[in-house]
Design brief:
It contains 5 helices and 7 strands; from the N terminus they run E-E-E-E-E-E-E-H-H-H-H-H. It is α+β, with helices and mostly antiparallel strands and 170 residues long. The chain has 2 domains: 67 residues, no CATH class; 88 residues, no CATH class. It has a 4-stranded antiparallel beta sheet, with no helix packed on it. It has a 3-stranded antiparallel beta sheet with strand order 1-2-3, with no helix packed on it. Helix 1 packs across helix 2 and helix 2 crosses helix 4.
Amino acid sequence: MSTYAVDVRRGGDASDGAVRARLYVDGALQAYSTLPARFEVPGGRIEVATSGFGLKRCHFVATDGAQTPLTPDPASAEGRREELHRRRPRLSRAIGVISALLIVIGLCVELPRLAAALSSIPLIADSVGVFTSPIQLPLAVNLLIGLGAVLGGTERALRLRAGWIDELAS
């Protein structure tokens, strides 16, 4: 039985800077594709997609439609995060809750600031008025909140838990 591995990275064979998924069969490069990627393999296909924070989907989809998430390489960041979850589930859950909170806090602070910036565009200001954000924080605090949201989103991507809220933060 053949072993399959998927690698996702920028560049490589082409110099256009695109992110590509590479399919290895028994250690040898079999195929590559820009993302989202779909590789036909015996018994189904492997689907790969990324988000702004990292790997979002890497599943084997059988010909009958059954979907199975693929196990990350233990040496990868995703694999190390999965190992932490398996060995220390309570710590992993606490990290997950903190990361989700960091994302929500980041959105709650930054979305009003974004609305204020957009409403200052003359065309928008003339039609709906100018919105002033009720949250006025020093630059250093804004930067820390933004960094926290990015770290929270990265942690969720490592757990392959990225969703629409993470995409908003990216």
